[in-house]
Write a structure and sequence with these properties.
The chain has 126 residues and is an all-alpha fold. Helices cover 53% and strands 0% of the residues.
């Protein structure tokens, strides 16, 4: 397995296929906006939605870079990348965030596949 295949394989495992840790996609399936916005009282922890926004912020920039573009970094601090501009019960906004996650994942997967000509089939865990 060459380096590109390893990168593609790890990208797949992190999002959709079971590896040595649970992938992101099944975690998000069926999760509601209220569940994704839950925060333990008194804790300074981030919600699932905040963590997902943080991942999206950087993954969108990775996708732009590997496509050869110049990413824009609108957040002024790392903490800003966690922000959720919606209320916790906005199911439409939550579903849009989940769909955006899928689109970014697929975009990176497609660019990686095109760069090496390697397309990993669903369920193919080389």
């Amino acid at each position: 397995m060459n380096r590109m295949e390893i990168l593609q394989n790890e990208w797949e495992k992190g999002y959709a296929s079971e590896g040595w840790y649970p992938p992101l996609k099944p975690v998000l399936e069926g999760l509601t906006a209220i569940q994704a916005s839950w925060r333990h009282t008194g804790e300074a922890a981030n919600t699932i939605w905040e963590h997902l926004n943080h991942l999206l912020y950087y993954n969108e920039r990775v996708l732009e870079r590997i496509k050869g573009g110049t990413p824009i970094y609108p957040a002024s601090t790392n903490d800003d990348t966690f922000s959720v501009p919606f209320t916790g019960d906005d199911e439409e906004a939550w579903q849009a965030t989940v769909k955006r996650t899928e689109a970014i994942y697929q975009g990176i997967r497609e660019v990686l596949s095109a760069k090496s000509g390697f397309v990993q089939e669903k369920g193919d865990h080389r």
